[in-house]
Automatic annotation (TrEMBL):
Keyword Transmembrane tagged: no
Source organism, top-level taxon: Bacteria
Coiled-coil residue windows: none
Positions bound to GTP: 171-174, 221-229
Identification of the protein by name: Small ribosomal subunit biogenesis GTPase RsgA
Residues of the EngC GTPase domain: 132-277
Gene Ontology CC, one term: cytoplasm
GO annotation (BP), single: ribosomal small subunit biogenesis
Length: 373
């Protein structure tokens, strides 16, 4: 090399970024991969439940042979417990054991980031999981019938309690002429929540809904609200069967009978759920507080920090009721949900105490039955 020559430096080629996981579009993340490490070491496969059936489920996973996503059936018995709120459901990420006998089965359910849990449709204090690991809860409300404010508030509390972001979707706007007025009424009882007016038939509002329905979404609402129609419109398929509502009372038939996860074309997924006749909250204290954030803001101005809003002087809530700032209907709805939440909390505590007592009794019985040394 001469004095005038400048040594050249070879720039190393940029490393090729690792390929995205085939299930990344459905919500598989580095955090979930880290939580799955010990399951992977045991030869198990990660997957997401797309449908629950009695005693089994369908799991979307990556086929080890082809490296492509595939749906496989698995038995659920190994992970079922007496606590219904923690049993596997649609949307759960799970460890799939292909070598289980007599058939492939679930070996574990990964920790959930969010879960929509309502009180079971019976008098026992148990929760029913509607969907897990969703980012947005789409609350479908039909404009073909006058919306019930109390039901909308319940659904909002249920959505907020899940940990996901609620979004109200007013459907069937093509059937009414006063959609904007109804939307304003719904916005008044949904502080901080986006309300969209859409029609799957004409396409009105669907572009904005698709833009907001990113990640994993769950559709909840009454039968006949158009949830299955929205699912088909969002996915661009006829994945869900739809039926016409009764013209007499605009009530729908239970066309969707199971909760089913359907991938979205641009990534993400939507979970269609059966129509909800009853919307009982299960541990919905925080959800109620967020659904009625306007009442919390008013109560913050009460003179006494522990104001019961009954007879105390300088009560901001009583003043708001008197001047109409806070509608009496909304206040009564808030109190009703609070009473229900207090009841389920007391019943749940009693059930937990009974379970602990039963467990202690079993341990004592087991200890006494051991042979003495």
């Amino acid at each position: 090399m001469t004095a005038t020559q400048v040594p050249t430096r070879t720039t190393p080629a940029s490393p090729t970024p690792p390929a995205a996981h085939p299930l990344a579009g459905l919500g598989w993340t580095d955090d979930r991969a880290a939580a799955f490490t010990r399951h992977a070491a045991a030869g198990l496969l990660p997957g997401r439940i797309v449908r629950m059936d009695r005693g089994s489920c369908e799991v979307l996973l990556v086929d080890p042979g082809t490296g492509e996503p595939a749906v496989r059936r698995a038995a659920t018995r190994p992970v079922m417990t007496a606590d219904t709120a923690h049993n596997p459901c649609t949307g759960d990420w799970v460890a799939y054991d292909p070598g289980a006998r007599p058939a492939p089965a679930l070996a574990a359910v990964l920790p959930r980031t969010t879960a929509i849990i309502r009180k079971g449709a019976h008098k026992r204090s148990e929760g029913q999981v509607l969907a897990a690991n969703v980012d947005t809860v789409l609350i479908a409300v039909s404009l073909a019938a006058e919306p019930d404010p109390g039901r909308v508030e319940r659904l909002l509390a249920l959505a907020w309690e899940s940990g996901a972001e609620p979004l109200i979707v007013l459907t069937k706007s093509d059937l009414v002429h006063d959609g904007d007025f109804v939307r304003a009424d719904v916005e008044a009882i949904a502080p901080g929540v986006t309300v969209l007016t859409v029609s799957a038939e004409t396409g009105e509002g669907m572009a904005e809904l698709r833009a907001r329905a990113t990640g994993s979404c769950a559709l909840i609402g009454q039968s006949g609200a158009g949830k299955s129609t929205l699912t088909n419109a969002l996915t661009g398929t006829a994945a869900m069967t739809v039926q016409q509502v009764r013209s007499v009372d605009e009530k729908g038939r239970h066309t969707t009978t199971v909760r089913e996860l359907v991938p979205l074309p641009a990534g993400g997924a939507v979970i269609d759920t059966p129509g909800l006749r009853g919307v009982g909250l299960f541990g919905g204290g925080e959800g109620i507080g967020q659904a009625f954030a306007d009442i919390s803001a008013i109560a913050a101005d009460c003179h006494y920090a522990d104001c019961s809003h009954r007879t105390e002087p300088r009560c901001a809530v009583r003043a708001a009721l008197a001047d109409g700032t806070l509608p009496e209907r909304r206040w009564e709805s808030f109190l009703k949900l609070q009473r229900e939440n207090d009841w389920i909390a007391a019943r749940t505590d009693a059930r937990l105490r009974a379970e602990r007592a039963r467990h202690r009794k079993q341990l004592t019985k087991s200890t006494r039955s051991r042979p003495k040394p």
